[in-house]
Amino acid sequence: MIEMIDVWKTYPNGVMALNGIDVHIEKGDFVYVVGPSGAGKSTFIKCMFRQEKPTKGDIIINGKSLTKVKERKIPYVRRQIGVVFQDFKLLPKLSVYENVAFALEVIEQSPKVIRREVMETLELVGLKNKARFLPDELSGGEQQRVSIARSIVNKPPVLIADEPTGNLDPDTAWGIMEVFEEITNRGTTVVMATHNKEIVNTIKKRVIAIEGGRIVRDEKRGVYGYEEDANPISTH
Ligand SMILES: Nc1ncnc2c1ncn2[C@@H]1O[C@H](COP(=O)(O)OP(=O)(O)OP(=O)(O)O)[C@@H](O)[C@H]1O
Protein backbone atom coordinates (compact mmCIF):
# COMPACT_ATOMS: atom_id res chain seq x y z
CA MET A 1 0.00 0.00 0.00
CA ILE A 2 2.69 2.54 1.09
CA GLU A 3 6.29 1.69 0.41
CA MET A 4 9.30 3.92 1.04
CA ILE A 5 12.48 2.54 -0.44
CA ASP A 6 15.79 4.02 0.70
CA VAL A 7 14.35 7.55 0.88
CA TRP A 8 16.78 10.43 1.44
CA LYS A 9 15.91 14.12 1.66
CA THR A 10 18.44 16.92 1.78
CA TYR A 11 16.97 20.44 1.76
CA PRO A 12 18.59 23.12 -0.45
CA ASN A 13 20.25 24.63 2.66
CA GLY A 14 22.14 21.36 3.16
CA VAL A 15 20.06 19.99 6.08
CA MET A 16 19.80 16.22 5.76
CA ALA A 17 16.28 15.60 7.05
CA LEU A 18 15.84 11.95 5.97
CA ASN A 19 18.76 9.54 5.76
CA GLY A 20 17.70 6.27 4.17
CA ILE A 21 14.14 5.46 5.18
CA ASP A 22 12.70 2.02 4.37
CA VAL A 23 9.12 1.38 5.35
CA HIS A 24 6.21 -0.81 4.33
CA ILE A 25 2.66 -0.03 5.46
CA GLU A 26 -0.22 -2.39 4.68
CA LYS A 27 -3.71 -1.40 3.60
CA GLY A 28 -5.88 -0.52 6.59
CA ASP A 29 -2.94 -0.08 8.98
CA PHE A 30 -2.85 2.74 11.50
CA VAL A 31 0.67 4.04 12.11
CA TYR A 32 1.97 6.69 14.49
CA VAL A 33 5.16 8.51 13.52
CA VAL A 34 6.97 9.80 16.62
CA GLY A 35 10.31 11.38 17.43
CA PRO A 36 11.89 14.46 18.98
CA SER A 37 11.50 17.91 17.46
CA GLY A 38 13.51 18.22 14.23
CA ALA A 39 13.78 14.43 13.83
CA GLY A 40 12.29 14.49 10.33
CA LYS A 41 8.66 13.51 10.96
CA SER A 42 7.14 16.34 8.92
CA THR A 43 9.60 15.74 6.10
CA PHE A 44 8.66 12.04 6.13
CA ILE A 45 4.97 13.03 5.91
CA LYS A 46 5.58 15.69 3.24
CA CYS A 47 7.46 13.21 1.05
CA MET A 48 4.54 10.80 1.42
CA PHE A 49 2.14 13.17 -0.34
CA ARG A 50 4.77 14.67 -2.61
CA GLN A 51 4.81 18.12 -1.07
CA GLU A 52 8.54 17.48 -0.96
CA LYS A 53 10.40 15.34 -3.47
CA PRO A 54 12.98 12.97 -2.01
CA THR A 55 16.58 13.61 -3.07
CA LYS A 56 16.98 9.86 -3.54
CA GLY A 57 14.83 6.74 -3.25
CA ASP A 58 11.25 5.95 -4.17
CA ILE A 59 7.81 6.14 -2.56
CA ILE A 60 5.08 3.92 -3.92
CA ILE A 61 1.45 4.53 -2.96
CA ASN A 62 -1.12 2.03 -4.14
CA GLY A 63 1.27 0.80 -6.83
CA LYS A 64 2.12 4.30 -8.13
CA SER A 65 5.57 5.83 -7.76
CA LEU A 66 5.49 9.34 -6.31
CA THR A 67 9.00 10.13 -7.52
CA LYS A 68 8.68 8.87 -11.09
CA VAL A 69 5.32 10.54 -11.78
CA LYS A 70 5.40 13.49 -14.22
CA GLU A 71 4.79 16.93 -12.65
CA ARG A 72 1.46 17.37 -14.45
CA LYS A 73 0.21 14.02 -13.13
CA ILE A 74 0.96 14.85 -9.47
CA PRO A 75 -2.58 16.14 -8.74
CA TYR A 76 -4.00 12.78 -9.85
CA VAL A 77 -1.66 10.83 -7.57
CA ARG A 78 -2.45 13.22 -4.70
CA ARG A 79 -6.12 12.30 -4.93
CA GLN A 80 -5.12 8.92 -3.52
CA ILE A 81 -3.98 10.66 -0.36
CA GLY A 82 -6.00 12.75 2.09
CA VAL A 83 -3.96 15.14 4.22
CA VAL A 84 -4.82 16.68 7.59
CA PHE A 85 -2.70 19.40 9.21
CA GLN A 86 -2.36 20.80 12.70
CA ASP A 87 -3.81 24.15 11.62
CA PHE A 88 -6.91 22.89 9.71
CA LYS A 89 -6.38 25.10 6.60
CA LEU A 90 -10.10 25.68 5.99
CA LEU A 91 -11.37 28.34 3.57
CA PRO A 92 -12.77 30.96 5.99
CA LYS A 93 -15.46 32.42 3.72
CA LEU A 94 -16.96 29.04 2.79
CA SER A 95 -19.43 27.10 4.93
CA VAL A 96 -18.63 23.69 6.39
CA TYR A 97 -20.58 22.09 3.54
CA GLU A 98 -18.77 24.17 0.88
CA ASN A 99 -15.33 23.47 2.36
CA VAL A 100 -15.95 19.73 2.08
CA ALA A 101 -17.77 19.91 -1.28
CA PHE A 102 -14.85 21.82 -2.79
CA ALA A 103 -12.72 18.66 -2.81
CA LEU A 104 -15.33 16.98 -5.04
CA GLU A 105 -16.08 20.01 -7.22
CA VAL A 106 -12.45 20.14 -8.39
CA ILE A 107 -12.77 16.56 -9.63
CA GLU A 108 -16.03 17.49 -11.36
CA GLN A 109 -18.44 15.18 -9.57
CA SER A 110 -22.15 15.72 -10.26
CA PRO A 111 -24.11 17.92 -7.79
CA LYS A 112 -26.13 14.87 -6.73
CA VAL A 113 -23.03 12.82 -5.89
CA ILE A 114 -21.46 15.82 -4.15
CA ARG A 115 -24.50 16.34 -1.92
CA ARG A 116 -24.69 12.65 -0.97
CA GLU A 117 -20.97 12.22 -0.29
CA VAL A 118 -20.58 15.49 1.63
CA MET A 119 -23.54 14.79 3.92
CA GLU A 120 -22.40 11.18 4.50
CA THR A 121 -18.91 12.38 5.40
CA LEU A 122 -20.19 15.14 7.69
CA GLU A 123 -22.27 12.51 9.46
CA LEU A 124 -19.17 10.32 9.92
CA VAL A 125 -17.28 13.17 11.61
CA GLY A 126 -20.36 14.19 13.66
CA LEU A 127 -21.04 17.54 12.01
CA LYS A 128 -24.14 16.96 9.92
CA ASN A 129 -26.06 19.58 11.89
CA LYS A 130 -23.40 22.27 11.31
CA ALA A 131 -23.18 22.08 7.51
CA ARG A 132 -24.19 25.75 7.11
CA PHE A 133 -21.79 27.12 9.71
CA LEU A 134 -18.66 29.11 8.82
CA PRO A 135 -15.31 27.80 10.14
CA ASP A 136 -14.93 30.60 12.70
CA GLU A 137 -18.33 29.69 14.18
CA LEU A 138 -16.88 26.30 15.16
CA SER A 139 -14.64 25.10 17.99
CA GLY A 140 -11.08 23.97 17.19
CA GLY A 141 -12.09 20.32 17.41
CA GLU A 142 -15.03 20.90 15.07
CA GLN A 143 -12.79 22.71 12.59
CA GLN A 144 -10.42 19.75 12.63
CA ARG A 145 -13.39 17.45 11.94
CA VAL A 146 -14.26 19.57 8.90
CA SER A 147 -10.69 19.34 7.70
CA ILE A 148 -10.78 15.55 8.13
CA ALA A 149 -14.10 15.39 6.26
CA ARG A 150 -12.61 17.42 3.41
CA SER A 151 -9.60 15.11 3.17
CA ILE A 152 -11.62 11.86 3.08
CA VAL A 153 -14.74 12.89 1.12
CA ASN A 154 -13.31 11.50 -2.12
CA LYS A 155 -12.51 8.22 -0.30
CA PRO A 156 -8.71 8.18 -0.69
CA PRO A 157 -7.08 4.87 0.31
CA VAL A 158 -4.53 6.76 2.44
CA LEU A 159 -4.98 9.48 5.07
CA ILE A 160 -1.91 11.30 6.32
CA ALA A 161 -2.02 13.58 9.34
CA ASP A 162 0.74 15.85 10.65
CA GLU A 163 0.13 16.66 14.33
CA PRO A 164 -3.68 16.66 13.91
CA THR A 165 -4.29 17.08 17.64
CA GLY A 166 -1.48 19.61 18.17
CA ASN A 167 -3.80 22.62 18.49
CA LEU A 168 -6.53 20.88 20.47
CA ASP A 169 -7.20 20.42 24.16
CA PRO A 170 -6.90 16.82 25.44
CA ASP A 171 -10.64 16.00 25.48
CA THR A 172 -11.10 17.26 21.94
CA ALA A 173 -8.03 15.32 20.82
CA TRP A 174 -9.61 12.05 21.99
CA GLY A 175 -12.69 12.83 19.90
CA ILE A 176 -10.51 13.30 16.83
CA MET A 177 -8.87 9.92 17.51
CA GLU A 178 -12.32 8.29 17.50
CA VAL A 179 -12.88 9.72 14.03
CA PHE A 180 -9.52 8.33 12.86
CA GLU A 181 -10.37 4.90 14.28
CA GLU A 182 -13.67 4.94 12.41
CA ILE A 183 -11.83 5.87 9.22
CA THR A 184 -9.34 3.01 9.73
CA ASN A 185 -12.23 0.61 10.30
CA ARG A 186 -13.48 1.50 6.83
CA GLY A 187 -10.18 0.19 5.38
CA THR A 188 -8.32 3.48 4.99
CA THR A 189 -4.61 3.46 5.80
CA VAL A 190 -3.81 6.19 8.34
CA VAL A 191 -0.35 7.63 9.04
CA MET A 192 -0.21 10.17 11.86
CA ALA A 193 2.82 12.14 13.07
CA THR A 194 2.31 13.16 16.69
CA HIS A 195 3.89 14.39 19.92
CA ASN A 196 0.87 13.22 21.91
CA LYS A 197 2.37 10.67 24.30
CA GLU A 198 -0.90 9.88 26.06
CA ILE A 199 -2.74 9.03 22.87
CA VAL A 200 0.09 6.84 21.50
CA ASN A 201 0.40 4.96 24.80
CA THR A 202 -3.37 4.47 25.19
CA ILE A 203 -4.68 3.73 21.70
CA LYS A 204 -2.02 1.14 20.90
CA LYS A 205 -1.00 0.95 17.25
CA ARG A 206 2.13 0.49 15.20
CA VAL A 207 4.75 3.09 16.15
CA ILE A 208 7.54 4.22 13.84
CA ALA A 209 10.11 6.33 15.69
CA ILE A 210 12.34 8.66 13.70
CA GLU A 211 15.51 10.27 15.05
CA GLY A 212 18.07 12.16 13.02
CA GLY A 213 16.22 11.27 9.80
CA ARG A 214 16.41 7.52 10.44
CA ILE A 215 13.92 4.95 11.70
CA VAL A 216 15.18 3.89 15.11
CA ARG A 217 12.15 1.81 16.18
CA ASP A 218 9.26 0.15 14.36
CA GLU A 219 6.94 -1.75 16.71
CA LYS A 220 3.57 -3.36 16.11
CA ARG A 221 1.93 -2.14 19.31
CA GLY A 222 4.52 0.38 20.31
CA VAL A 223 4.92 3.11 22.90
CA TYR A 224 5.70 6.80 22.55
CA GLY A 225 9.11 6.40 24.15
CA TYR A 226 10.06 10.03 24.85
CA GLU A 227 9.70 11.82 28.17
CA GLU A 228 11.01 15.26 27.46
CA ASP A 229 8.66 16.51 24.77
CA ALA A 230 5.23 15.07 25.49
CA ASN A 231 3.46 18.14 24.09
CA PRO A 232 5.96 20.78 22.95
CA ILE A 233 4.83 24.01 21.40
CA SER A 234 5.05 23.54 17.66
CA THR A 235 7.91 25.20 15.86
CA HIS A 236 6.02 25.42 12.56
N1 LIG B 1 11.95 23.61 4.11
C1 LIG B 1 13.04 23.33 4.81
N2 LIG B 1 14.24 23.82 4.44
C2 LIG B 1 15.34 23.52 5.14
N3 LIG B 1 15.39 22.72 6.23
C3 LIG B 1 14.22 22.22 6.65
C4 LIG B 1 12.99 22.47 5.97
N4 LIG B 1 12.00 21.82 6.62
C5 LIG B 1 12.58 21.17 7.64
N5 LIG B 1 13.92 21.41 7.67
C6 LIG B 1 14.89 20.84 8.60
O1 LIG B 1 14.84 19.44 8.48
C7 LIG B 1 14.95 18.82 9.76
C8 LIG B 1 13.71 17.95 10.02
O2 LIG B 1 12.58 18.81 10.11
P1 LIG B 1 11.09 18.25 10.27
O3 LIG B 1 10.17 19.43 10.19
O4 LIG B 1 10.89 17.15 9.30
O5 LIG B 1 11.14 17.67 11.75
P2 LIG B 1 9.96 17.20 12.72
O6 LIG B 1 10.38 15.91 13.30
O7 LIG B 1 8.66 17.25 11.99
O8 LIG B 1 9.99 18.33 13.84
P3 LIG B 1 8.78 18.91 14.76
O9 LIG B 1 8.39 17.81 15.68
O10 LIG B 1 9.42 20.04 15.48
O11 LIG B 1 7.69 19.34 13.85
C9 LIG B 1 15.12 19.95 10.78
O12 LIG B 1 16.50 20.10 11.00
C10 LIG B 1 14.56 21.15 10.05
O13 LIG B 1 15.18 22.34 10.49
Automatic annotation (TrEMBL):
It is found in: Cell membrane. One of its GO terms (biological process) is cell division. Its main location: membrane. The keyword Cell cycle applies. Keywords: ATP-binding, Cell cycle, Cell division, Cell membrane, Membrane, Nucleotide-binding. It is a peripheral membrane protein. InterPro entries: AAA+_ATPase (IPR003593), ABC_transporter-like_ATP-bd (IPR003439), ABC_transporter-like_CS (IPR017871), ABC_transpr_LolD-like (IPR015854), Cell_div_FtsE (IPR005286), P-loop_NTPase (IPR027417). Belongs to the ABC transporter superfamily. Homodimer. Forms a membrane-associated complex with FtsX. This is Cell division ATP-binding protein FtsE. It comes from Pseudalkalibacillus berkeleyi. The gene is ftsE.
